[in-house]
């Protein structure tokens, strides 16, 4: 069965795209077949994986807005990596939320991605995957909602800063609402601490706050009752910021760096978190 | 005359709020009367300045959506700082863009903030200011457009990372469109390098790219023809990330830190950039 994971955080610049690309690549190195879906009109995941969004004839925008679109046709293999695939984004995706708005009242706008990826997710099609990672834009709008109705799991990249805590409750409230309204099997698997500066007091205080919050939910019927703070964190490492400029993940750009190590360990934790679910 | 500066970048987490709060406080320490406007439904500037957005009875949301709202009544002094004022945000602001949508076709939705701050900006009212800083949300939507039609200047906080360059042209294109459509005196004063890691190759390459781009526009009729990259940059400094958790700017929390120094120098550059305009 395919694990579908939404990389979610409405706060901008916290590491969603960096995590999608490098966790995806790390899972690929463990032998998994990984599909990465770029759901952000900024198309940063697409750029990160060496694809120019301005050169695309088709993208996830077409999957969402064109009734005849076929996901199997739109998915492309990442160059040099046969077990890594990409469903790319383009700038037109910015208009998708407006175009889909008329279908919101019936609930179908919220499920377009799920409906049109159904064939791929069921494993019936030519392309099959063990993991689907969905990179979300920094908002809780219709694109992110589509990720939440499609996914079985949520992973939250976050920065251990004070203002990061402010947005967390709103994020989890949204996950709860989608679980109740559309997707009963949706659960939060964990939080990824990105750009982490472990030696600072601020980081340790924020991490303690997040863990206390999660512990308070362990016996409640909430989607984060089994969520963990993935350990170890992803350390700040300039190599991770440099690799997108080469259109490569850390494993092709700087395979011996801290960034490569940290995402490899995250992949192991994510694989382990899936056992027995 | 009052300088109205929009702190703009559709990319999230690049330092807009940190810059608004600390540049505002630094200008205040130079004797300027500063109004900071929180235009972000996340209300992070409001939190940063020690105000709980959940406790507010009135905010910029009311200014935008209530015909009877009076800006002079909604503006509050920042505790302990008689020359620093705040027009706060609250979570309801998230609905403002939808509520104002019917007024978009006539162009009035885009100018609501300008119209309702007109009295304050002209200096006719009881509260008078030398600087108005507008903290924008991470988007180029209606709230940000309102900042652009109200402002005379744009300052762009940015991180010297590769993906930051991707969004810059879209940002500047939007400034140009608003200048043409609504606000002929709008100009880009400069870019603030935030969370800067000067010793990295990536940072120096990105800065060189930005400077080359700006130089290419020096003899053109573009709003960034006189824009500079403010020097020195704002260095990464954990004190800047800690201060919002105390509801204080860097000058009350850690006045001898690098963060305090860097924003003081930015204030001097911003004051100098206003001479002879
Ligand atoms: N561990 C890290 N060390 C250093 N830089 C990092 C790290 N993780 C991410 N970055 C850089 O920080 C910036 C923001 O990261 P990223 O784009 O992944 O965040 P995001 O949450 O996807 O942003 P957005 O909300 O805009 O989609 C990028 O320039 C990225 O290269
Ligand atoms: N120079 C710095 N050194 C260390 N941390 C910083 C610095 N500048 C900002 N930060 C921290 O980085 C995070 C993002 O900064 P900030 O909230 O100012 O960005 P923003 O552009 O306003 O984000 P948003 O797009 O969500 O409004 C915050 O946690 C902030 O405290
Ligand atoms: Mg991203
Ligand atoms: Mg902000």
What does this protein structure show overall?
Two copies of one chain form a homodimer. In chain A, α6 runs parallel beside α7 (142-150). The first copy, chain A, has helices spanning 16-29, 44-48, 60-65, 71-74, 96-100, 112-122, 142-150, 162-181, 201-215, 238-242, 250-253, 258-273, and strands at residues 3-7, 34-38, 76-78, 81-87, 131-135, 153-158, 187-193, 228-229. By secondary structure, chain A is α/β, with parallel strands linked by helices. The longest helix of chain A has 20 residues, at 162-181. The model of chain A has no long low-confidence stretch (mean pLDDT 95). The first copy, chain A, is built from twelve helices and eight strands. An eight-stranded mixed β-sheet of chain A has the order 3-4-2-5-1-6-7-8, sandwiched between helices. The interface between A and B is medium-sized, with 26 and 26 residues. Bound molecules: adenosine-5'-triphosphate (ATP) (2 copies) and magnesium ion (2 copies). One adenosine-5'-triphosphate (ATP) sits between chains B (12-18, 40, 42, 44, 138, 194-195, 234, 236-238, 240-241, 244) and A (11-12, 161, 163). The site of one magnesium ion has 5 residues of chain B, from α1.
- Choose one word for the global shape of chain A: globular
**First-residue to last-residue Cα separation of chain A:** 11 Å
Q: What value does the Rg of chain A take, in angstroms? A: 18 Å
- Residues in helix, % of chain A: 40-55%
Q: Say how many strands of chain A there are.
A: 8
| Order of strands across the main sheet of chain A | 3-4-2-5-1-6-7-8
- Quaternary structure of the protein: homodimer
Q: Mind describing the biggest β-sheet of chain A?
A: 8 strands, mixed
Bound molecules: adenosine-5'-triphosphate, magnesium ion
Largest interface: A-B, 26 and 26 residues
Helix/strand structural class of chain A: alpha/beta
């Amino acid at each position: 069965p395919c694990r579908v994971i939404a990389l979610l955080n409405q706060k901008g610049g916290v590491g969603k795209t960096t995590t999608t690309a490098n966790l995806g690549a790390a899972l690929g190195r463990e032998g998994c077949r990984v599909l990465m879906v770029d759901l952000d009109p900024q198309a940063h995941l697409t750029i990160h994986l060496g694809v120019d969004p301005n050169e695309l004839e088709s993208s996830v925008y077409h999957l969402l807005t064109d009734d005849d679109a076929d996901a199997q046709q739109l998915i492309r293999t990442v160059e040099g990596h046969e077990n890594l695939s990409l469903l790319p984004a383009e700038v037109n995706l910015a208009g998708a939320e407006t175009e889909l708005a008329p279908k919101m009242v019936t609930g179908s706008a919220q499920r377009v991605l799920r409906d049109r990826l159904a064939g791929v997710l069921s494993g019936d099609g030519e392309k099959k995957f063990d993991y689907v990672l969905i990179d979300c834009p920094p908002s809780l709008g219709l694109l992110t909602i589509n990720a939440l109705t499609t996914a079985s799991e949520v992973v939250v990249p976050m920065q251990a800063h004070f203002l990061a805590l402010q947005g967390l409750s709103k994020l989890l409230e949204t996950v709860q609402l989608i679980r109740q309204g559309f997707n009963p099997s949706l659960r939060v698997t964990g939080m990824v601490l990105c750009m982490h500066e472990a030696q600072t007091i601020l980081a340790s205080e924020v991490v303690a706050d997040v863990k206390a919050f999660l512990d308070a939910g362990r016996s409640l019927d909430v989607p984060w009752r089994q969520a963990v703070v993935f350990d170890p964190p992803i350390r700040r490492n300039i190599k991770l910021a440099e690799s997108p400029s080469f259109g490569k993940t850390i494993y092709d750009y700087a395979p011996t760096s801290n960034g490569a190590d940290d995402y490899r360990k995250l992949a192991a934790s994510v694989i382990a978190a899936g056992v027995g679910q």
